[in-house]
Amino acid sequence: MQPVYVVLIINLIIWAGIFGFMFNTDKKISSLSVKLERLNRDKNI
Amino acid sequence: MVNKLLKIGLFLILSLVIIGAFIYAPLAKGLGEFTRVLYFHVPMAWITVVAFFIGAVYSILYLKKKEHKYDLYAETANQLGFLFVVLATVTGSIWAKMSWGSFWNWDPRETSIFILMLVYAAYFALRSAVEQADRRASLAAVYDIIAFVTVPFFVFIVPRIYASLHPDPLINTQGKIHMSPKMQLVFFTSLFSYTMVFVWMLIMRIKMIKLKLKLKEMEQ
Q: Would you kindly state where each structural domain of chain B is located, as residue ranges?
């Protein structure tokens, strides 16, 4: 395999790792925010 | 608004690093085209050290103040450190396959990073083994501080005292950086921008922990 493709693959692995982690965190934050909002609304009622 | 501008700035600077690594930076003698791996593989190892250091600082803070949030911050910093040590190992292993002919050679550098991964895997195992929150936090904090003591040894000392196939450490034994100015520019920009990505990831995780704690407080 051409070395330049190896470097590209390495780059892709790094970005897949970073984006995977970010995506997971973002999903968790969104679900927690929804829960918190619902709880706040219920308390107000 | 400032947050959005910072994100755009980070995106631009990271794009420049990738373009600079492939087009602008010259190749190093002996490494050839594989020089370009340097701009992506080394920042992963650097962030690993930074993340584990932050984890150890939060663990010290937990032991000092006994506030549960610091234990959770330490855990999240160590999770990030573990992610980056895995990325450094995987990318290094692909580099090894292309340069040395096999994915794993038990070279001193590979062995030391493997032991470091085991040390931190044990940290997560310890956390999952203790059910009582206060006890878990105290034990994990003490273990984390001891674990961090091994980090400089495995990352900086072992590769310098044993003969290794791994390319020279960035700052060699004479304390000098053997890189052309163009390479240094791309390299240090890469180091800075990936560190900023890590800071962003850590801030997001801390935000998540704060939300969790707030939710728990409201539910009680």
A: 2-24+32-169+178-219
d(CA B150, nearest CA chain A) in Å: 25
- Distance, in Å, from the CA atom of B183 to the CA atom of B22, rounded to the nearest integer, reads 11
The Cα-based distances of B103 to B31, B37, B91, B107 in angstroms read: 17, 15, 10, 11
pLDDT band at B132 (very low <50, low <70, confident <90, very high): very high
The pTM is what?
A: 0.87
Q: What is the DSSP string of B38-104?
A: HHHHHHHHHHHHHHHHHHHHHHHHHHHH--HHHHHHHHHHHHHHHHHHHHHHHHHHHHHHHHHSSS-
Tell me what ipTM this predicted complex has: 0.79
Task: Say yes or no: B56 contacts chain A, CB-CB below 8 A.
Answer: no
Q: How many cross-chain Cβ pairs, A to B, lie less than 8 Å apart?
A: 74
Q: Report how far residue B198's alpha carbon sits from residue B185's, in angstroms, rounded to the nearest whole number.
A: 20
> Cβ of B94 and A6 within 8 Å?
yes
A29 at B interface, C-beta within 8 A = yes
Cβ–Cβ below 8 Å for A21 and B218 = no
Q: Is B218 on the interface with A (CB under 8 A)?
A: yes
Tokens representing B86 are: 């895995």
Structure tokens at B140: 């994990």
